[in-house]
Design goal:
This protein has 2 domains: 248 residues, TIM Barrel (Alpha-Beta Barrel), CATH 3.20.20.70; 67 residues, Antifreeze-like/N-acetylneuraminic acid synthase C-terminal domain (Type Iii Antifreeze Protein Isoform Hplc 12), CATH 3.90.1210. Helix content is 32%, strand content 15%. It contains 11 helices and 10 strands. The strands form 2 sheets. It has an 8-stranded parallel beta barrel, surrounded by 7 helices. A two-stranded antiparallel ribbon has the order 9-10.
């Protein structure tokens, strides 16, 4: 199954902190999650990522921090997976343990390994044996840790592995975004695609995600929210932001074009007409010799190129050549 066949592949990341909206509006958690999926589909998002499971701290007071508690059941997630499929989106989960993997694997299109689990080799090993595409968050990681995780996954699966640059700071300050690390990942892991999970404070032009795409990130991920006015949602995107990034990256794809420098089809006519040919600067009579004083270089470029001038200097002409005429090879003698 080709999941990442659209570039960029845009992911709306949903965490249970967005259930603030449910509390404010006094709506069921599942109803809000369903609405988020629907809105993602409507604005051109390609995949939805759910963080599944509670935040696994040794000590966590759920009463004081309900954002650490996953409010949805496995059946809820399976229903959301169906909604994603109906909306033409990939259903992505970031699981916190093996039990979640076992219970949802039959509906999961893509797994994401959270930065908190980058060194959790047992979990990575377990997920990779499911033989599905994996997004590996590289936030706060060094190259060795990334290589260790990749080696574990490669031992088990040949499915897509995408390295996701991100920064473990919420929200990420602009000076900490370090988008050049996208290029570093591409250079160090040439066999893998690279993406970017963006946690910077939202810019109206979506310049940061657009730049990440221009640097080579083919998968773009950002938190998706229904209301950016909530505390902690200032680094999330809404429907309009998603549409802007899609427009920006479509434009970037158009203007980037091809990497290898060569004449383009659109340049063919102009290239021929704007370049110059060798012409007679004055009338040249039969038997006279071509020299630097009796030739000139003028448009169009459908005659002998000025770069070939040394091939004709010193040769005698076999016919009369009128002033301003193109000089052709068949007008010249073969010897000087």
């Amino acid at each position: 199954m080709r999941i990442f066949n659209k570039h960029p592949f845009l992911i709306g990341e949903i965490s249970f902190k967005y259930y603030d909206f449910a509390k404010k509006e006094e709506l069921p958690y599942f109803e809000v999650a369903e609405l988020l999926v629907k809105k993602c589909s409507e604005c051109g998002i390609n995949g939805v990522n759910f963080h599944v499971g509670d935040s696994e701290y040794l000590h966590c007071n759920y009463e004081n921090d309900s954002n650490q508690k996953d409010q949805l059941s496995y059946d809820d997630y399976k229903q959301l997976a169906m909604y994603c499929k109906e909306g033409g989106m990939a259903f992505i989960i970031t699981p916190t343990n093996k039990e979640i993997v076992d219970n949802l694997d039959d509906v999961v299109d893509v797994y994401k390994i959270a930065s908190s689990d980058l060194n959790n080799i047992p979990l990575i090993d377990y997920i990779s044996k499911k033989h599905k595409p994996i997004l590996l968050s590289t936030a706060a990681a060094n190259l060795k840790e990334i290589k260790d995780a990749i080696n574990c996954m490669e031992d088990n699966s040949n499915f897509n592995i995408v390295l996701m640059h991100s920064v473990l700071s919420y929200p990420t300050k602009l000076e900490d975004a370090n988008l050049l690390m996208i290029k570093d990942l591409l250079e160090n892991f040439k066999d893998y695609d690279v993406g970017y999970s963006d946690y910077t404070v939202l810019d109206k032009s979506m310049f940061i995600l657009t730049t990440a795409y221009n640097y080579g990130a083919v998968i773009l991920e950002k938190y998706f929210t229904l209301d950016k006015s909530f505390e902690g949602h200032e680094f999330a995107m809404d429907e309009e932001d998603a549409r802007i990034i899609r427009l920006n990256t479509n434009m970037m794809s158009k203007i980037n074009g091809y990497k290898n420098k060569q004449p383009l089809i659109c340049e063919s006519f102009s290239r021929n007409n704007i370049r110059k040919s060798i012409v007679a600067k004055e009338d040249i009579k039969l038997g006279e010799t071509i020299n630097n004083s009796n030739i000139d270089f003028k448009r169009p470029g459908n005659g002998i190129s000025p770069s070939k001038v040394n091939e004709i200097i010193g040769k005698k002409v076999k016919v009369d050549i009128a002033k301003g005429s193109l000089i052709e090879y068949d007008m010249l003698s073969l010897v000087h």
